[in-house]
Write a structure and sequence with these properties.
Cofactor: Mg(2+)
Protein name: IMP-specific 5'-nucleotidase 1
Strand order of the largest sheet: 7-6-5-4-3-12-13
GO biological process, one term: nicotinamide riboside biosynthetic process
Shape: globular
Keywords: ATP-binding, Hydrolase, Magnesium, Metal-binding, Nucleotide metabolism, Nucleotide-binding
InterPro entries: HAD-like_sf (IPR036412), ISN1 (IPR009453)
Helix content: 40-55%
Strand content: 15-25%
Order of helices and strands: HHEEHHHHHEHEHHHEEEHHEEHEEHEEH
Radius of gyration: 26 Å
CATH class of the largest domain: Alpha Beta
CATH topology of the largest domain: Rossmann fold
Number of helices: 16
Structural class: alpha/beta
Bound molecules: magnesium ion
Oligomer: single chain
CATH superfamily of the largest domain: HAD superfamily/HAD-like
Number of domains: 2
């Protein structure tokens, strides 16, 4: 990849998160101005030992060409440097925290566009809770020594994790619903929940604390509880082994196909042995879907998927991808053939061109049809077009389970605009993780902050 291509590609909005870039830019200034290299310890043949640049400057010994001006090229002793860096970083985080508060106040008044933050980051989303960024930075600094670094400035990932910690701190006292993406959030891509997953005791702890826990996944198996039970086999087996009560199990849900197929967890009769086992029960759409969703017509869904399929086929052939089309009743996608790994750029090309094609199709169809919501996303090694999206998924659960946006958090790995977790931002708080290990990390931060109701303790 040539550098100009790389720069152009990365400048594209879909590769960046504007709020994180903004905070990163602010933290970069004190880093550039103050995080100077450590004073060198020079080996001088004349004195036969190690001495610092200060000794050499004071005594005039040594063979180096340093002069008095060089003193300023280096940082003071470690401790004061770290403390001063930390102080500057904390001031910045506190200022952003205050800007977010102002944005929230303006949003309550119905004019979020009047906030300073909105003027600087026009695409900034809604904040459903305050974000204690200063406290979260202190926490992250204790773990990752951000202020002690002289060559690596606070990174995108540092800031992403700090925002997660701040969100966890803010939502812990009021949280009532937590939703999780599946692939890369709870388990690796395309794999299943295994019994030894360290996430299982954490999910049970959330349920014991009275939270509703739901997996909101793109994986779509229309009404087929068995397929989801297979993917979640390890988790359900541990629920079974621990003989969790029906009341506890009722707090666990699976919403598949983004927002299309809802299941509740509970004890049921095993088909094979007739013994009671923990499994999933399909909930009929009429009992939870809003009327506008129930009004989506089958033929219109299929027409939209036909247009998407045609565009995906064109992309596969234009880029010569080793991929096949997979059509489901409410989705169509391309999946690699065999062990082929499709390049991220090619997957993004499929996503962006299909998004564009479907938007044009809906605009040209005019008002004669309902504009059926859809999402096109890069799933890491595949591309899918799903009917509906996770925004609707989270909203459906919030209504069904009675959870407000400020009491809901969605955990996922796809928060760039080509990802399918991105849409949830307008309806709930979010935690952006990049692996099941990071999900474990945020849950280990969250669970100690929850209060367990007396009957569960
Ligand atoms: Mg995912």
């Amino acid at each position: 990849m040539t550098s100009s291509y790389r720069i152009n590609y990365q400048l594209r909005a879909h590769k960046r998160d504007p709020l994180i870039e903004f905070i990163k830019g602010l933290l970069l200034t004190p880093f550039i101005l103050h995080a100077k290299p450590r004073k060198p310890v020079l080996t001088s043949p004349h004195v036969g030992g190690n001495e610092s640049i200060d000794t050499i400057l004071a005594t005039g010994t040594g063979t180096s060409n340093v002069n008095n001006d060089d003193r300023n090229d280096y940082q003071e002793e470690d401790k004061p440097m770290v403390d001063a860096n930390l102080q500057r970083y904390l001031e910045i985080m506190k200022s952003v925290e205050v800007m977010i508060e102002e944005h929230r106040r303006k949003a309550v008044k119905g004019v979020p566009e009047h906030s300073r933050l909105h003027r600087i980051v026009p695409s900034v989303a809604t904040f459903f809770t305050p974000l204690p960024l200063e406290a979260a930075f202190l926490d992250a600094n204790a773990k990752h020594s951000i202020a002690a670094r002289r060559f690596v400035p606070p990174s995108f990932n540092d800031i992403r994790r700090i925002l997660n910690t701040a969100q966890v701190m803010a939502i812990a006292p009021t949280i009532s619903l937590i939703t999780f993406d599946g692939d890369m959030t709870l388990y690796d891509d395309g794999t299943s929940f295994t019994e030894n997953s360290p996430l299982i005791p954490l999910l049970i702890a959330l349920m014991r604390a009275g939270l509703r826990v739901a997996i909101v996944t793109a994986a779509g198996y229309p009404g087929d509880a068995g397929k989801y039970e297979e993917r979640l086999m390890g988790l359900l087996r541990v629920f079974d082994q621990q003989k969790l009560s029906e009341k506890l199990l009722e707090r666990f849900y699976v919403l598949g196909g983004e927002c299309n197929y809802l299941f509740r967890c509970g004890w049921k009769k095993s088909d094979a042995t007739s013994e009671p086992v923990v499994g999933l029960t399909y909930i009929h759409p009429e009992s939870y879907q809003p009327s506008d969703m129930l009004a989506w017509k089958h033929e219109e869904i299929q027409e939209l998927l036909d247009v998407a399929e045609e565009n995906l086929k064109r992309s596969v052939s234009a880029m010569n991808l080793k991929a096949m089309i997979l059509r489901k009743s409410r989705a169509v996608g391309i999946v690699p053939i065999g062990d082929v790994k499709i390049a991220r750029e090619q997957l993004d090309e499929c996503v962006l061109s299909t998004q564009q094609r479907l938007l044009e199709y809906q605009q040209m169809s005019g008002s004669s049809k309902t504009a059926i919501p859809f999402c096109v996303f890069n799933g890491g090694n595949d591309v899918f077009v799903d009917i509906g999206n996770k925004l609707i998924g989270v909203q459906v659960l919030q209504t069904y389970l009675g959870a407000a946006p400020e009491a809901t958090v969605h955990v996922g790995d796809q928060f760039l605009s080509t990802g399918n977790d991105f849409a949830t931002r307008s309806s709930c708080c979010t935690l952006w993780i990049i692996s099941p290990e990071e999900t474990e990390g945020v849950l280990k931060e969250l669970t100690p902050l929850l209060t367990i109701p007396a009957e569960e303790a």
